[in-house]
Amino acid sequence: MIPSAPVVQMEHVRHVFTSVDGSRFVAVDDLTLEVREGEIVSIVGKTGCGKSTMFNLLLGLENPTAGSITVLGRDPYQDFDFFRAKFGVIFQTDRLLPWRTAFANAKVGLEILGYSEAEQGEIARHWLHKLELMGFEDAYPHELSGGMRQRVGIARAFCLSPDVFFADEAFGHLDQSTAQRLREVFLTLIGETKKTCLLITHNIHEALEIGSRLIVLGKPSRVLYDVQCPTRASRAELVEFEERILDIIERNEPHHEAAARARS
Ligand SMILES: Nc1ncnc2c1ncn2[C@@H]1O[C@H](COP(=O)(O)OP(=O)(O)OP(=O)(O)O)[C@@H](O)[C@H]1O
Ligand SMILES: [Mg+2]
């Protein structure tokens, strides 16, 4: 089997915020990881551990204080323009433009990229259809439920046919059944398009349901545990796995250190 190409590479990345009074805060500390083409990686970690900061670094919105980052073989901060339309970003809140209909929101990126009206319409309608929003194209965000607005946000991301998806707590503020349904839809589309995806979540069930691989980050961000998600696991094995993840997060230590302590 030919190994897939690396899409994301972070090597010894450190990111320090300096506030106006000169005090320094380490948000990311010696973060090294690689994500390969087609992988769906769930990322969990304590609140404030630097998950969104890691995404901002990968999206080229922040320049790391130290270490190196490449996405699709390039530096996302230095080569910011190269990445136009290569990233699909889905946030916790939909960030739709309130004065635009669902249809007009979905196609906004295509407009910016200069697609013809006909292409914009065709692509946007295709993805609104996939996100089960046909019949709501002319609705404004305030006329849609939270789940439907999030669907428009996801359609907007898919419209650009990006190489990599970054989802930051994309289902976090939806009720359980709405989130569950949308996770299923999202996972199907990611599977169909075979895209690489990094997904930040606080929900371990969600992490295991969507991800093929799970990364647990410590506070400040560094890898505590990097593991393939169990498939065909029994209920008891899943419970044990979840407990292990929660324990690693709580201890804030790399997995092998926690395991060694438990043995001694
Ligand atoms: N621009 C900034 N300036 C200073 N500190 C910041 C800045 N952005 C984030 N931080 C700090 O860095 C730390 C990590 O923030 P980040 O938003 O990346 O955490 P997170 O893991 O995404 O948290 P959550 O799970 O709550 O979303 C936090 O303590 C936050 O206050
Ligand atoms: Mg965050």
Explain what the structure shows.
The structure is a single chain. This protein has 264 residues and is of the alpha/beta class. The chain has 2 domains: 1-86 and 163-229, Rossmann fold (3-Layer(aba) Sandwich), CATH 3.40.50; 96-161, no CATH class. Helix content is 37%, strand content 24%. The strands form 2 sheets. The protein has a 6-stranded mixed sheet with strand order 5-6-7-3-8-9, with helices on both faces. Strands 2-1-4 form a 3-stranded antiparallel sheet, with helices on one face. Magnesium ion binds at residues 51-52, 168.
- CATH class membership of the largest domain: Alpha Beta
Total DSSP helices: 9
Instruction: Please give the radius of gyration in angstroms.
Output: 19 Å
Q: Kindly estimate the percentage of residues that lie in beta strands according to DSSP.
A: 15-25%
Main sheet overview? 6 strands, mixed
The N- and C-terminal alpha carbons lie at a distance of 40 Å
Bound molecules: adenosine-5'-triphosphate, magnesium ion
Mind telling me the CATH superfamily name of the largest domain?
A: P-loop containing nucleotide triphosphate hydrolases
What is the β-strand count? Answer: 9
How many structural domains in the coordinates?
2
Strand order of the largest sheet: 5-6-7-3-8-9
Helix/strand order: EEEHEEHHHHEHEHEEHH
CATH architecture of the largest domain: 3-Layer(aba) Sandwich
pLDDT under 50 segments (min length 5)?
Answer: none
Q: What general form does the structure show?
A: globular
If you average the pLDDT, what whole number results? 92
Structural class, by secondary structure, is: alpha/beta
Percent range of helical residues: 25-40%
Q: Could you name the CATH topology of the largest domain?
A: Rossmann fold
